[in-house]
Structure to design on (592 residues):
């Protein structure tokens, strides 16, 4: 039995397809990442899996239960940490967890122990009796995550867990996610549009765009499939024809693009190729001005599947409309 | 059933915690009814002969104090559901909806909390009334009066929850609530005896549950009953109103929160 499974899942709002015929399966205990640009259908999928939206067609199973017909059992098996912070600001950290414990029917005699343990895990024990309004963004997020796993769900959904946090806090949150995954061994299903996050955390990644899954694989396989490392160099003096001729003799170099004094070299083992380049250049008395080696990142994988890097998301579109409306009203 | 009670209590507990933390709100909500009882209560003190003509012996301010207690209850409870909109906007609602608790327990928890808050606010107004010289023939009546206020507020918090669950924006919510609140107060004998209203107004007033609550609370405070409406009839009307509103609110809330916000 898979932890999360969808079969030809589709959801449309009016004429627009938010997600279109999505099928995937997540193994038990896996950290699975849903990666995609804004408006790709990530949130729609997570809302269907957490029983907040009903799919238009297809089937979704969470922990073996159908989200349509066994919603209650699904809700008993999941933890859901939303993108925006949902803790009550005027309650203390501990009161927030107490609320979460009651919402999820944790047996009364276990509530206090569970809360103590989780507060220790997320390192908020000494702040537990302060109002959340005094917490920083990172602390709130930790409290949110703690709330999502207090009842030890079989599947934990994390919707954009580090959006809007600074890079130090983001890394800290990743550590906590790894820590809780190790401790509780639950399945984690997360959405993100940060490549680095997916790379750091996920066992497997599904790239989703325009409501369709483009590819599912491990981050390593995806990067390896991109193959080449890229060496960019600029040089002065000397005979470029000889230089190029000799460079092309190196086995590891697959391809060279020439732009005057700039070379872009595609090679399979960049770190071994660079010393060879220097050797040839010194023999030919060619002076290398600059050189750099770039390894393929998940960004490159992402762009290769989703095409363009930045796009107008829905919110941007609405803002434009809103702006035009305001202008008309003022005039 | 057991779990419905437990879940309702969970939401009730959370709403009360939030109320306790907003001390400034407690006072701000008292200003308006305090102005009513102090300003209107004294402005119309000259109408004493009129209220005496329907068998009421005391000052005008003693006649209208029950009306202001109900005014406090109406507005505290009918505004009370607004945080449903915040909860939907800021994700608490989704958190509750993805947990195993039932949808109706969310509505019921909110309504019970609003009713209790409404009674607390009303009891503060009772304090103000006592401070400015309104007398209570039987001080122990305060307990059943508060029970009636809680019951009545349950019905009005139902209206509030229905409007909040259906409205998609703050603007819609406040528009509808203001449209409902003030007329329901005005179309009742809160400020003026039922017998002295023009016939058509009295007829409309008799369709208004606020009327029966005001008459009942006034009878409990002063011992004078009006318009031939017995306490039993009033309790019956209030009970039916509350049952219908609570049922309707649970149903509408459950239906509406399942739609995307």
């Amino acid at each position: 039995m898979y932890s999360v499974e969808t079969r030809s899942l589709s959801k449309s709002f009016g004429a627009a397809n938010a997600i279109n015929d999505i099928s995937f399966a997540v193994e038990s205990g896996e950290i699975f990442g849903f990666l995609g640009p804004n408006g790709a259908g990530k949130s729609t999928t997570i809302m269907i899996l957490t029983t907040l939206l009903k799919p238009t067609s297809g089937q979704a199973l969470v922990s073996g239960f159908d989200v349509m017909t066994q919603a209650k059992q699904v809700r008993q098996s999941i933890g859901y940490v939303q993108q925006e912070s949902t803790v009550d600001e005027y309650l203390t950290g501990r009161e927030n967890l107490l609320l979460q414990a009651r919402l999820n029917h944790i047996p009364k005699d276990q509530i206090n122990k569970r809360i103590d343990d989780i507060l220790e895990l997320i390192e908020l024990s000494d702040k537990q009796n302060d109002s959340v309004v005094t917490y920083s963004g990172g602390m709130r997020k930790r409290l949110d995550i703690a709330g999502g796993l207090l009842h030890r769900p079989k599947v934990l959904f994390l919707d954009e867990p580090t959006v809007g946090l600074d890079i130090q806090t983001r890394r800290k949150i990743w550590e906590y996610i790894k820590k809780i995954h190790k401790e509780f061994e639950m399945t984690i299903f997360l959405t993100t549009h940060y490549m680095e996050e997916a790379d750091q955390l996920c066992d497997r990644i599904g790239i989703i765009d325009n409501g369709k899954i483009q590819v599912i694989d491990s981050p390593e396989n995806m990067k390896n499939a991109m193959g080449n490392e890229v060496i960019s160099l600029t040089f002065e003096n000397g005979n470029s024809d000889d230089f190029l001729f000799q460079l092309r003799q190196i086995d590891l170099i697959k391809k060279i693009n020439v732009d005057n004094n700039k070379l872009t070299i595609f090679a399979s083992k960049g770190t071994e190729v660079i010393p060879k380049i220097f050797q040839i250049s010194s023999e030919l008395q060619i002076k290398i001005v600059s050189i750099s080696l770039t390894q393929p990142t998940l960004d490159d994988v992402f762009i290769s599947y989703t095409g363009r890097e930045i796009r107008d998301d829905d919110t941007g579109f609405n803002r434009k409309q809103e702006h035009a409306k305001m202008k008309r009203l003022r005039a | 059933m057991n779990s419905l009670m437990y879940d309702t209590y969970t939401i009730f507990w959370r709403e009360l915690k939030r109320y306790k933390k907003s001390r400034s709100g407690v006072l701000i909500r008292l200003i308006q009814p305090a102005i009513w009882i102090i300003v209107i209560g004294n402005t119309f003190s000259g109408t004493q002969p009129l209220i005496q003509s329907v068998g009421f012996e005391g000052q005008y301010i003693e006649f209208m104090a029950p009306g202001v207690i109900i005014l406090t209850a109406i507005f505290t409870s009918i505004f009370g559901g607004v945080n449903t909109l915040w909860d939907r906007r800021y994700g608490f609602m989704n958190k509750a909806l993805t947990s195993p608790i039932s949808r109706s327990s969310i509505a019921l928890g909110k309504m019970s909390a609003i009713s209790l808050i409404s009674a607390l606010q009303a009891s503060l107004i009772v304090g103000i009334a006592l401070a400015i010289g309104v007398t209570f023939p039987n001080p122990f009546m305060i307990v059943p009066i508060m029970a009636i206020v809680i019951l009545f507020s349950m019905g009005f918090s139902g209206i509030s929850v229905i409007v909040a669950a259906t409205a998609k924006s703050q603007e819609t919510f406040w528009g509808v609530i203001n449209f409902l609140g003030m007329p329901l107060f005005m179309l009742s004998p809160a400020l003026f005896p039922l017998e002295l209203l023009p016939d058509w107004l009295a007829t409309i007033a008799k369709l208004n549950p606020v009327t029966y609550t005001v008459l009942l609370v006034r009878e409990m405070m002063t011992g004078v009953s009006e318009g031939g409406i017995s306490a039993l009839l009033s309790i019956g009307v209030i009970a039916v109103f509350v049952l219908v509103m609570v049922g309707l609110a649970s149903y509408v809330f459950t239906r509406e929160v399942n739609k995307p916000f």
Notes: Residues 312-323, 325-331 of chain A have pLDDT under 50 and may be disordered. Residues 4-223 of chain A form a domain with the Rossmann fold fold (CATH 3.40.50.300). Residues 5 and 61 of chain A are 5 Å apart (CA to CA). The two ends of chain A are 61 Å apart (CA to CA).
